[in-house]
Amino acid sequence: MVKARTILAHYLNKMKNFCVMPFMHGFVTHQSIGPCCAYTNNPKLNSPQQYWNSDQLKNIKSNMIADVRDSGCKICWDKEDRGFASLRNHSNTIYEKYVDDIINGKTFDQPVVLDLRLGNLCNLKCRMCTSEWSSQIADEILSNPELDWDSIPSEKLTSVSDKTWELLDNWIGRVERVFMTGGEPTIIKKNLEYIQKIIQTGQGKDIELIFTTNATNVNREFLRLAENFKSVHFAVSIDAVEDLATYIRFPSDWDTIKQNLNTIGQNNFGVGINTTVQWLNMTRLTEMFNFIEEYIDSKPKQFAGVWFQLVTTPSYLDPIYAPRFMKEIAIEQISNFLKNSKLFQNEKFNNILYGDLKNGLESTRTFLQNNIQLEKHKDVFLKKMEQLDRIRGQNLFDILPELKPLGGHNGK
Description:
Elements: H1 2-14, H2 21-24, E1 25-29, E2 33-34, H3 55-65, H4 74-81, H5 87-94, H6 96-103, E3 113-117, E4 125-126, H7 135-143, H8 162-171, E5 177-180, H9 189-201, E6 208-213, H10 220-226, E7 231-237, H11 242-248, E8 249-250, H12 254-265, E9 270-277, H13 285-297, E10 302-310, H14 324-340, H15 357-370, H16 378-392, H17 396-399
Parallel strand pairs: 1-3, 3-5, 5-6, 6-7, 7-9, 9-10
Antiparallel strand pairs: 1-2, 4-8
């Protein structure tokens, strides 16, 4: 392990723009196949079978080896330029065992890690999400076409094509790790089918299975089948607690989420917490910090860390543009947590493999301080929240009265 890390550090010190993902990873959705979930210029193909040997992918790899910033990697570059660790940084560390092979010219005849978005079926309509990833949001838009939406989907439900499904079948034999997101992966039928196909091949014992879930639903069949895999990890998306959790991830029930999170944590599964920081929770971070400490105190059997990310889209939820008073509240709450929490006595929370919580929060604080004067999109934010409030029977200022200085119909 020490030798591998030495090789990784030496290699990446020379190549600041290298990313391991295009060489060994496949991001598969109902629309396209690409190197990862953050890549924005996915190849245009006549058939998904063409992807792994396509000229476009070869060009991406060439850019990585040549230490050239590929234009499709803008999400990672923007995040790193803001002072945060990106998916590229995490991936180069997590998959360091492949780096030496790639340096020496090794190629893979298929992805060995898959990130699957096999449909947009979801039971929630989160305020930072889109119809592409939530059937509930698509239904809400299609049911209210007269309102001001950023885009109108052509259909409520999406799923992968038969050709993509065939390709995934062919890839099973060499895959080492499978991520499943969505939508909500625990209710997408194709996910369950793919898990069963893996088990039928006898490959499960060699494969790590990772779900990104909202924890509103614990699929007992998933838990039963998971016993057939090398390991299973649940990355649970939680942005707030109690009524604010329901407001952001409507119509989730906080008590159900807590119960399901406890069920997952007390089984032999890894569990981590993913939190997106945005306008809607940046004044309530202390509540989230308290919950994280409380959950860790419950001693989940395999706790895998806390991952904080700043929302960048839509821009009216991006913390960089939040009003100064909201940034000041967030800075104070982060500072208090960093100063007083006993979590940071555990090196796990300073490790990039477990979310690098301490550095992530320090970077967030610095970022907010450096951009304290930058304020945009207040009117758009209020308009979007008011529109969704009318449809969903909610009220922003009932949930977050400290935001009333923003004004708006109900804040005045």
